[in-house]
Design goal:
This protein has helices at residues 12-20, 50-66, 70-73, 81-90, 106-117, 135-147, 152-155, 168-173, 197-206, 226-229, 273-276, 299-315, 317-339, 368-377, 401-416; strands spanning 38-39, 100-102, 126-130, 156-159, 179-185, 210-214, 233-236, 251-254, 347-348, 361-364, 380-381, 383-385, 389-392. The chain has 431 residues and is of the alpha/beta class. The strands form 3 sheets. The protein has a 7-stranded mixed beta sheet, with helices on both faces. Strands 9-10-13-12 form a 4-stranded antiparallel beta sheet, covered by helices on one side. The longest helix has 23 residues, at 317-339. The protein is globular, with a radius of gyration of 22 Å. The structure holds pyridoxal-5'-phosphate.
């Protein structure tokens, strides 16, 4: 699937041929594509599918017709909604039923898992993270260390990047007897670099370090094997590649070896269902990952995920990954061959090796911000991360090879016609 293994061509006819042979092309009409645009931002907010709309509307209707009895009589009883969707999603991440729960937001799940697994003791007090992680994760870790009585300036290790990437060797080197926990991303939100989670887990466990991954940028586009890799915990966002809607309820995974450990942030929704309504003063946590729930599930934020999971199940994560590698490889090929040199000067920050990249391509240009605006004016929806990286995500379920070909023609035209110069250099807050 790498650039070498697969022969791409520059012409438009090649894109059309690829689309004609694409087994996932049938899924495009399951989504609401935005008219007159090419949506390349599904790594930030996935598009709505008809399936997600249907499950959302069904739950709304259950509320209308059942009122409170929806908790027990919804098509999927609401009381078990997080567990049921978690079991469906477990197959996507190489987990068993009971190990995945749909609950809370990504950052709240991070706090709960860190509150559970970060136990500073003696000289083992540090947390390993890295300087390229999504800021929310670092803000949370900083706060959690303070909450545990530590000093984040001392106890938070931020592994440094080299040439915009984080090397696994550099992370492993920092895994010393002073480290209690490692918390790392699966795919870096800017560069699209995919980390070797199996290798990092093995290295952490050798040093008796707990390890968890933020898989927000990989679930739904990259296969995961949490059980086989033996990771301790993971959490992720469902509104990116999982297409579950803005602010959609997030997920977490806890390895079954660790069931029974007390969640750091307890609440009644994590109580065992059999004793939940006894309203005892003593907390009786569920016997699996469900224990890491806190409060009542946000039904309307979780309902679209049911429809999304149906599509994912039909498409299959292996086929999604196969197309994702091909189509991102194609995008990189077109940029390299057509737009790599003057006067275009686009370059790619994403690693080339298939095993080192996720579902989006980071494109660097010193005029990135203005080019990004010029693309939007042309109906391309990319996104931008400062100081100068545009992210382009050809989502396998709804972006075609022809779309990618067209995007590269737009990248070319905004420079040929000097269109980007019409835009101001200063940034607004919404990207
Ligand atoms: C998208 C994303 C989040 C989002 O967190 P929310 O709590 O949903 O706002 C967190 N971490 C990473 C790495 C992300 O990519």
């Amino acid at each position: 699937m790498s650039k070498k293994a697969f022969r791409y061509e520059l012409g438009e006819d090649f894109a059309l041929r690829m689309d004609a042979e694409d087994p996932l092309a049938v899924f495009r009409t399951r989504f609401y594509n935005i008219p007159n645009s090419i949506y390349m931002d599904g790594n930030s907010l996935g598009l709505m599918s008809r399936d997600a709309e249907e499950t959302l509307m069904r739950v709304a209707n259950e509320w209308k017709t059942l009122g409170i009895s929806g908790w027990g009589r919804g098509k999927i009883p609401w009381i078990d909604f997080g567990e049921t969707l978690g079991d469906l999603e477990a197959t996507l991440v190489g987990a068993e039923p009971g190990e995945v729960i749909v609950t809370n937001s990504t950052t709240v799940n991070l706090h709960n898992l860190v509150a559970t697994f970060y136990e500073p003791k003696g000289r083992r007090r540090k947390i390993i993270a890295d300087e390229l992680n999504f800021p929310s994760d670092l803000y949370a870790l900083y706060a959690d260390i303070i909450l545990m009585g530590g000093d984040p300036e001392e106890d938070l290790i931020l592994v440094k990047s080299r040439n915009g990437l984080i090397e696994e060797d550099d992370i492993i080197e920092q895994m010393t007897g002073e480290v209690a926990l490692a918390l790392l991303p699966s795919v870096y939100y800017k560069s699209g670099q995919l980390t070797d989670m199996a290798r990092l887990t093995k290295a952490a466990h050798r040093k008796k370090i707990w390890i968890g991954f933020d898989c927000s940028h990989s679930v739904g586009v990259v296969p995961h094997f949490f059980d086989r890799w033996d990771v301790d915990f993971a959490f992720w966002c469902n509104y990116k590649y999982m297409n579950a809607g803005p602010g959609g309820t997030a997920s977490l995974y806890v390895n079954k070896r660790l069931f029974g450990i007390r969640p750091g942030l307890a609440g009644w929704w994590g109580n065992s269902r059999s004793t939940m309504f006894n309203m005892e003063t003593k907390y009786d946590p569920a016997k699996n990952a469900a224990a890491w729930q806190i409060g009542t599930i946000n039904m309307f934020s979780a309902a679209p995920l049911e429809g999304s999971l149906r599509i994912m199940g039909e498409a299959g994560i292996e086929r999604i990954r196969e197309k994702s590698l091909k189509i991102t490889g194609y995008l990189m090929y077109l940029i390299d061959e057509m737009l790599g040199k003057a006067p275009y000067n686009y370059s790619i920050v994403t690693p080339r090796e298939p095993e080192r990249r996720g579902g989006h391509v980071g494109v660097l240009h010193k005029e990135g911000w203005r080019i990004n605006q010029a693309l939007i004016a042309r109906g391309v929806i990319p996104d931008f991360r400062p100081p100068n990286i545009m992210r382009l995500a050809p989502i396998p379920l709804y972006v075609s090879y022809h779309d990618v070909w067209k995007v590269t023609q737009h990248l070319k035209a905004v420079i040929d016609n000097k269109e980007y110069m019409k835009f101001k250099d200063e940034r607004s807050t919404v990207t």
